[in-house]
Amino acid sequence: MSNIIPLTAGGKITGIVPTDIEQVFRLATAIAKSGLAPNGMKTAEALTVAIMHGLELGLPPMQAVQRIAVINGRPTVWGDAIPALLLSRGFKIKESIGGGAETRCAQCEITRPDGQVFTGVFSISDAKTAGLWGKAGPWKQFPDRMLQMRARGFAARDGAADVLGGLYLREEIEDAKPLRDVTPAARETVTPGAKALPPTVGEEPTPDDAIEVVPDLPVDYGPDA
Q1: What backbone phi and psi angles, to 5 degrees, belong to 117?
Q2: At 146, is the pLDDT very low, low, confident or very high (cuts 50, 70, 90)?
Q3: Pick from 61, 77, 48: which is nearest to 164 by CA?
Q4: Which of 53, 68, 71, 94 would be a feasible disulfide site paired with 109, CB 3.0-4.6 Å?
């Protein structure tokens, strides 16, 4: 006996939406093994994070896998996903681009369901200031498109932060330099009179003048001491 249930007339096929973390991981594992996962999300763990981010935004799992990308170590959403997310929630989007060869400027106007209007603008002048204009890659091949995505990103993050959940557009983050740790390295301190530990095998002893010495400070036990 077959376990396949035939669709009746008027039946509707719906997407699979997991209801717990185990189902999310099983689905992510299947996508990873299928070889259809996008670059940068080849592991089941990375796909799990993408699917969970998508569910928070209201994207079905398979759409989340295609519309969420990991750039410089952080999840981002493709600019083309913004209209889908906003329009499905009652927002209105109006975009335009104009100007001459040296004065091109993109504008994106987003109207919230309550009527508030937010406008994002990005011009060639802005791109030059940011060091993007003429940069090898999309900025050189599709300059108008990149201006449009930047204007859209500004408007969406200002006017629809509740929808995006803090996610940036991929087109914004991929132009940014990766973050680096600038925390100063910890310096070793030694109390006067303490004996230094012998160096480990293969390690040169540290000169005494290279160690910062911290003097003993008086201890304040409070007024009741």
Answers
A1: -115, 130
A2: very high
A3: 77
A4: 94
